């Protein structure tokens, strides 16, 4: 993913440490570093998050306690008093129109020199009508009546005024090094400022209009550079030679015909996209996106079988042992008649040294065709004979380095990443922009929509009665609790307490089990196997069952304290039911206190469409919280908002594609700065032609 530094090319002087500025010692450098300000480029790209537009008012207009700018004359000599360590106070009389008020500045002793008796000034502060006093915050520079100034995010170590002062010094010293990266034609087309003007007007705007134009230009510039980086990455990836998997099309068609169901039109389209990629010598980097229950696993199975018929091995990495075991069981049953050897490698396998050693030996000899596993797959001693395809399931649950480590198990194998977390276009343009995307946008025939209800805690008696009715009909149920054990900090029901209560409530009627992440892998497998075999009627669980668990006879999902979960997670949990032909139900138990919490519950009740839910989750929580910034690779934009500024993001993407696709891109002198930026920041020195 592109690392973006506010549109500044980090070369020459702009890469100087902030410590080169006057008055910035080691302690201040450390404080600035914590704010993400390491270089001059970082500092000049550290834009205000808002602006104060302060208009001078008449004293007659001011209400008690209001923050206001007042214009008047210093009517007495200022008195400076110092007390305590580094604390001070300045008092003086201030003539505003026909009234004299008392003004106090705290801890700004340097202002005494500027507060000259008889001088007209403008002061911003909080007015106390009863005392006729102003608790002053700052002395405004603009004597014309208005002061428009940026407000910076600060910290305990670094004050906002310090940042403002350093930015001013840095701009004076380095502004000539600021280079335009957005082509002239685009700046003319969209009426955008030059980069130097953007930096100036973001930090020192004369008016609100100037600040707005600078921000609009900065947003486009930020998105354009990000999207240009993505297009550059795609060019490098396409230049990379991958593996041309010349699979046996007849065998693949015969395998698909043996499936006990007809592929949906969406599944057929996606299979064709993936197989076409695999057949080409260029490296495949594709994201398979589909809602819960849309049939992604069978697509992965077809792709892996294609790799096997081409004479290569395939591997699938799942986020949990339960899911890895489930995939292994399904694929083993599916491929057994075809003589395809499927094996499972998890931390449980690793605990059995002899078994693990034998498995790795078979893998290295090429005697295992498909290896399913968890992060145990990326351990150093796991060696494939001829790896051709890497599949990651719920890929956002793995870190960037884990996914990279798995790819490096082979010589540039094709990559298929799967996610059941529907990603709105907003995030797809950012988090997965360098990948080709295949979307399964329809559910298999026969799937009944899950009826979702929002239940208050006072209705729990009726809820358990409904659950009992469903169990008596031969169905099974999940009950989800957010915590394993009681937490004093968070008053939530916990899995063990819920299990004890339900075991007592349903004693002699239904068999109740418990599943949570602190159990040993063997225990979890045993519990899940018992639930699948219907040796348990009701399973109390934490979110360990969130992803992929498939028990068609389970028709009821009860989620306690549902308002504590994100919408995408609730949708994932709901997807554990409705996997068979019976009518299924999801019951959300919550008493949210805020409008935000209520809106989330209402969204779940209103729709089963994962893409609508994901968009709503994005709007309510922001991109970082939906998928997790670190895991998903979502960039931390400094100016633009991928949600609020989606239109600009889409235009920037379109323009970036056209600029980099132009035949004269490399030879056009207007692109010199952009090409240098892409080589330095994205290609890490790699060239393309």
Automatic annotation (TrEMBL):
Keywords: ATP-binding, DNA damage, DNA recombination, DNA repair, DNA-binding, Helicase, Hydrolase, Isomerase, Nucleotide-binding. PANTHER family: ATP-DEPENDENT DNA HELICASE HOMOLOG RECG, CHLOROPLASTIC. Its EC number is 5.6.2.4. Belongs to the helicase family. RecG subfamily. Plays a critical role in recombination and DNA repair. Helps process Holliday junction intermediates to mature products by catalyzing branch migration. Has replication fork regression activity, unwinds stalled or blocked replication forks to make a HJ that can be resolved. Has a DNA unwinding activity characteristic of a DNA helicase with 3'-5' polarity. Residues 459-619 form the Helicase C-terminal domain. SMART domains: DEXDc, HELICc. This is ATP-dependent DNA helicase RecG. Residues 277-440 form the Helicase ATP-binding domain. Transmembrane segments: none annotated. One of its GO terms (molecular function) is ATP hydrolysis activity. One of its GO terms (biological process) is DNA recombination. It catalyses: Couples ATP hydrolysis with the unwinding of duplex DNA by translocating in the 3'-5' direction; ATP + H2O = ADP + phosphate + H(+).
């Amino acid at each position: 993913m592109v690392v973006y530094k506010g549109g500044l090319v980090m070369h020459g002087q702009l890469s100087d440490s902030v410590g080169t500025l006057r008055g910035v010692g080691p302690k201040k450098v450390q404080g600035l570093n914590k704010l993400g300000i390491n270089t001059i480029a970082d500092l000049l790209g550290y834009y205000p998050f808002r602006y104060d537009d302060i208009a001078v008012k008449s004293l007659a207009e001011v209400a008690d306690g209001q923050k206001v700018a007042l214009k008047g004359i210093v009517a007495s000599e200022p008195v400076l008093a110092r007390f305590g360590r580094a604390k001070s106070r300045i008092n003086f009389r201030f003539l505003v129109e026909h009234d004299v008020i008392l003004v106090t500045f705290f801890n700004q002793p340097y202002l005494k020199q500027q507060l000259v008796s008889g001088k007209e000034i403008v002061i911003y502060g909080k007015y106390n009508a009863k005392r006729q006093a102003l608790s002053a915050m700052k002395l405004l520079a603009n004597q014309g009546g208005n002061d428009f100034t940026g407000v910076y995010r600060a910290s305990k170590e670094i004050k906002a005024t310090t940042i403002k002062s350093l930015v001013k010094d840095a701009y004076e010293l380095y502004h000539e090094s600021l280079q335009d990266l957005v082509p002239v034609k685009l700046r003319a087309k969209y009426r955008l400022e030059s980069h130097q003007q953007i930096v100036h007007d973001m930090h020192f705007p004369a008016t609100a209009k100037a600040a707005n134009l600078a921000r609009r230009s900065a947003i486009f510039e930020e998105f354009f550079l990000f999207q240009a980086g993505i297009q550059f990455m795609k060019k490098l990836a396409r230049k990379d030679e991958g593996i041309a998997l010349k699979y046996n099309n007849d065998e693949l068609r015969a395998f698909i015909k043996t499936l006990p169901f007809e592929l949906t039109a969406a599944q057929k389209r996606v299979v064709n996209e993936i197989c076409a990629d695999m057949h080409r010598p260029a490296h495949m980097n594709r994201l398979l996106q589909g809602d819960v229950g849309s049939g992604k696993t069978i697509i992965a199975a077809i792709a892996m079988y294609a790799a096997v018929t081409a004479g290569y091995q395939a591997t699938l990495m799942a986020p949990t042992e339960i899911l890895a075991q489930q995939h292994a069981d399904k694929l083993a049953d599916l491929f057994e008649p075809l003589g395809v050897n499927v094996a499972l490698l998890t931390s449980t396998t690793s605990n059995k040294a002899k078994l693990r050693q034998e498995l790795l030996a078979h893998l290295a000899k090429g005697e295992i065709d498909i290896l399913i596993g968890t992060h145990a797959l990326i351990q150093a001693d796991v060696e494939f004979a001829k790896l051709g395809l890497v599949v990651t399931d719920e890929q956002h649950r793995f870190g960037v380095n884990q996914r990279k480590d798995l790819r490096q198990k082979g010589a540039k194998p094709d990559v298929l990443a799967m996610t059941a977390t529907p990603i709105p276009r907003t995030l797809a343009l950012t988090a997965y922009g360098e990948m080709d995307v295949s979307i399964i946008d329809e559910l298999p025939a026969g799937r009944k929509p899950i009826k979702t209800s929002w239940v208050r805690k006072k209705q729990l008696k009726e809820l358990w009665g409904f659950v009992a009715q469903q169990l008596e009909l031969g169905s099974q149920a999940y009950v989800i609790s957010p915590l394993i054990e009681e937490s004093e900090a968070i008053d939530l029901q916990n899995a063990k307490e819920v299990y004890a209560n339900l075991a007592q409530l349903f004693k002699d009627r239904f068999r109740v089990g418990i599943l949570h992440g602190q159990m040993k892998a063997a225990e979890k497998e045993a519990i899940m196997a018992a639930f699948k075999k219907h040796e348990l009627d009701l399973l109390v669980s934490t979110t360990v069952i969130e992803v992929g668990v498939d028990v068609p006879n389970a028709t009821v999902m009860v989620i306690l304290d549902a308002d504590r979960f994100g919408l995408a997670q609730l949708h994932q949990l709901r997807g554990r039911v409705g996997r068979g032909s019976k009518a299924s139900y999801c019951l959300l138990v919550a008493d949210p206190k805020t409008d935000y919490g209520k809106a989330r519950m209402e969204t779940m009740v209103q729709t089963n469409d994962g893409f609508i839910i994901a968009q709503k989750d994005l709007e309510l929580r922001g991109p970082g919280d939906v998928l997790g910034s670190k895991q998903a690779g979502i960039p931390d934009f400094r100016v633009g908002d991928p949600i609020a500024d989606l239109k600009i993001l889409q235009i920037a993407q379109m323009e970036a594609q056209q600029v980099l696709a132009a035949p004269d891109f490399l030879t056009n002198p207007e692109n010199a700065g952009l090409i240098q930026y892409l080589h330095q920041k994205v290609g890490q020195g790699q060239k393309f032609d």
